[in-house]
Amino acid sequence: MAGVIARRARKQRAFRWTVLILLGVFFLLPMAAMLEFSTRTAGTWSLLVDWPKLNETYPDLAAGIVASLEQAGLTALLMLVLLVPTAIWVRLRLPRLRPLVEFLCLLPLTIPAIVLVVGLAPVYAWVTYFLGGSSLTLVFAYTVLVLPYAYRAIDAGLSAIDVKTLAEAARGLGAGWFTVMWRVVLPNIRSAVLSAAFLTVALVLGEFTIASLLHRTNLQVAIEFLGKSSATMSVAVSLTALLLAFVLLLLLSLFGDSRKRKT
Q1: pLDDT higher for 257 or 247?
Q2: Less packed terminus of the chain by CB within 10 Å, N or C?
Q3: Torsion angles phi and psi, residue 204, rounded to 5
Q4: 41 in Cβ contact with 232 (< 8 Å)
Q5: What is the pLDDT of residues 194-238, one digit of tens each?
Q6: Which residues lie below 8 Å from residue 164, measured CB to CB, with a gap of 6+?
Q7: Quick one: pLDDT at residue 78?
Q8: Shared domain check, 59 and 176
Q9: Least confident of 79-83, 92-96, 138-142
Q10: What sequence ranges are listed for the domain ABC transmembrane type-1 (predicted)?
Q11: Is residue 30 located within the same domain as residue 77?
Q12: Are residues 92 and 56 in the same domain?
């Protein structure tokens, strides 16, 4: 019996390693090809890390990078300001509305980006009229776009703790609702909040469709335009953005694992 179990364990281990190697080749081979292609022009990577020279040589790319970083930061901030208090309040005071809130937050996941743009175009005509045509106005669209992922992360964090007991204990000691949210519940879902923020940043840095069709500037739009004049630099920037998103998700995974071990 022990021999059968040992053979089965070896087969399962061999199968896991085989799948892992195949997936590694599937993901790493295109990245290796991108790296090889981007080095065909001398000085591509050195220019990429020299910001003053990059800003002088490719001003549109530099503007796209700055715009995407600003959009990512503002989108994460707006998403957290709107979603975290709402999710906590629904858990504590309005539990019957939780299915409705979940449905509304997950709805953008079922709507293709091109359809979202068709619906947002008339809205952005008024946004442009009142706020101008700045690329930062994409923050409103991106906040809607990231709701499904951010809501799932925050909801999972709230499900992992006893929110009602913590709130009742704090209220019994004289704390107000703002104190309950800010000093009692929020520290216990810090990892979920960081997960939502990391996912938001990764999604905003990789978004192209909405920005392109609404004629706004971001990193992906700048890369698309750059590809028409400098393919090697375009591929190098694409690879850098891909690696940055991978690092963010890796940090998210490592942070989540460390929180679980501490718990």
Answers
A1: 247
A2: N
A3: -65, -40
A4: yes
A5: 888 888 988 898 888 888 888 888 888 998 888 888 888 888 888
A6: 91, 92
A7: 93
A8: yes
A9: 92-96
A10: 65-252
A11: no
A12: yes
Distances (CA, A) of 57 to 44, 54, 60, 227, 233: 11, 5, 9, 14, 11
Q: Which two tokens stand for residue 108?
A: 């953008």
- The 8-class DSSP code of residue 166 comes to H
Whether pTM exceeds 0.85: no
For residue 191, give the nearest of 130, 120, 251 by alpha carbon: 251
pLDDT digit string, tens, across residues 96-122: 888 898 898 888 888 887 888 888 888
Tokens for 184, please give them: 């009692």
Alpha-carbon distance 53 to 59, whole Å?
Answer: 9
Same domain, residue pair 115 and 34 = no
117 and 18 fall within a common domain: no
> Which residue carries 């503007």 as its tokens?
63
3-class secondary-structure state, position 58: coil
**Do both 138 and 257 map to the same domain?**
yes
**The tokens of 101 are what?**
């809130």
Q: How many residues does the chain have?
A: 263
How far is 73 from 250, CA to CA, in rounded Å?
19
- Count of domains for the chain: 2
Question: Do residue 129 and residue 177 come from a single domain?
Answer: yes
Q: Are residues 54 and 85 in the same domain?
A: yes
